[in-house]
Amino acid sequence: MPGGVGSRLRLGARVRGPEDVGDALVEFLVGSLVPVAFALDLAGRIVAYHCGTTLPCSGEPFNPAHAMRVDAPGVKASGVIVAHAHEGASTVPFEEDLAATQALMLQGRVEGIELVDHIIVAGRSWRSLREATSLWG
Ligand SMILES: [Zn+2]
């Protein structure tokens, strides 16, 4: 990840909840529609990250198998957080975002990786779909 993003997103940083990364994601994703994904270990530490994950709103075909594949050399990732930005000011998820989240969850179950959260960034705001939807039950 490029420098200046903030220590919240560095390798080894502990993620206890979306508030640990939301503001940093706003800084990182500003002006970009390329989704990102972070792999976490069992302790919630970032062990790998991946920019260019294929998610809705990126203009790329959605591919959940690719989205959940975040390389973490030598480390078994147990969870993944994905994030993407909206062009406008609204962090309200589109239907495609909800469908994508469900597809990621299913793919994660196949691979033994939990989808920890899906965060949408818009302007200076962010929204955790884990907190804002009932998709996680
Ligand atoms: Zn979206």
Short note summarizing the structure:
The chain has 137 residues and is of the alpha+beta class.
Q: Can you describe this structure?
A:
This protein has one domain: Cytidine Deaminase, domain 2 (3-Layer(aba) Sandwich), CATH 3.40.140. It is globular and about 40 Å long. It is built from four helices and five strands, in the order αββαβαββα. A five-stranded mixed β-sheet has the order 2-1-3-4-5. The model is unreliable at 1-5 (pLDDT under 50). With 137 residues, the protein is of the alpha+beta class. The structure holds zinc ion (ZN). Zinc ion is lined by residues 56-57, 84, 86, 93-94, 97, 120.
Secondary-structure topology with pairs:
Layout: H1 22-29, E1 36-40, E2 46-51, H2 64-67, E3 79-85, H3 95-111, E4 114-122, E5 125-128, H4 129-132
Parallel strand pairs: 3-4
Antiparallel strand pairs: 1-2, 1-3, 4-5
The structure holds zinc ion (ZN).
The site of zinc ion has 8 residues, from loops.
Which features characterize this protein?
single chain, 137 residues, alpha+beta, Cytidine Deaminase, domain 2, five-stranded mixed β-sheet, 4 helices, 5 strands, 24% helix, disordered N terminus, binds zinc ion
